[in-house]
């Protein structure tokens, strides 16, 4: 049997222009039968709080002047919400979403504060071990 | 695609990459062997991604018909 192909993503950013590629690339990995582990840290984790996950409309400061236009085009063209794309990919494929324990401690977030799509809260040591030998991305 | 009976059609027009492909993967998982599934897609990525996925998954790519502003991509579940 061929060795399992794996992708590990560290999601540091919590702006929607970074979260779209997270969900779309995770879908591409599912298409390729890869196991995906997503590690949410700092602003990436803040974006997965229950109250933020659907309402967040932040765009990276580097592209702030295009933010309104981007969100407008996406709404007009009915682009699926990045969260729905990630939910769909997780239903079909082998995706595991982990919250960074350090960030959770810092901002006093418990599992209950996070959207149920998040599977667990783990330390960096465990994630780096998962990332060993996998395709790694930093988003 | 003459002579091919479509079991199920997925209308994923208006959905962006990877939407149509993910819809197909979802339907293929629960379809019966022998089912023929057509995906309507206006997305450029699916046109190449779907045949590649079918090959990788060991399923049959029946063909693609290009219609007015969208593609009709046809697949058969063979296993």
Structural account:
Chain A has 139 residues and is an alpha/beta fold. Chain A has one domain (6-138): DsrEFH-like (Hypothetical Protein Ychn, Chain: A), CATH 3.40.1260. Chain A is built from six helices and five strands. Chain A has helices at 16-31, 43-46, 64-76, 82-92, 101-106, 124-131, and strands at 6-11, 35-40, 95-100, 120-122, 135-138. Chain A has a five-stranded parallel sheet. In chain A, α1 packs parallel to α4 (82-92). The radius of gyration of chain A is 15 Å and the shape is globular. The model of chain A has no long low-confidence stretch (mean pLDDT 95). Chain B is globular. The model of chain B has no long low-confidence stretch (mean pLDDT 93). A four-stranded mixed sheet of chain B has the order 1-2-4-3, covered by helices on one side. Chain B has a single domain (8-76), classed as 2-Layer Sandwich (Translation Initiation Factor IF3), CATH 3.30.110.40. By secondary structure, chain B is α+β, with helices and mostly antiparallel strands. Chain B has helices spanning 19-30, 44-57, and strands spanning 8-11, 36-41, 60-67, 70-76. Chains A and B meet through α1 and α4 of A and α1 and α2 of B.
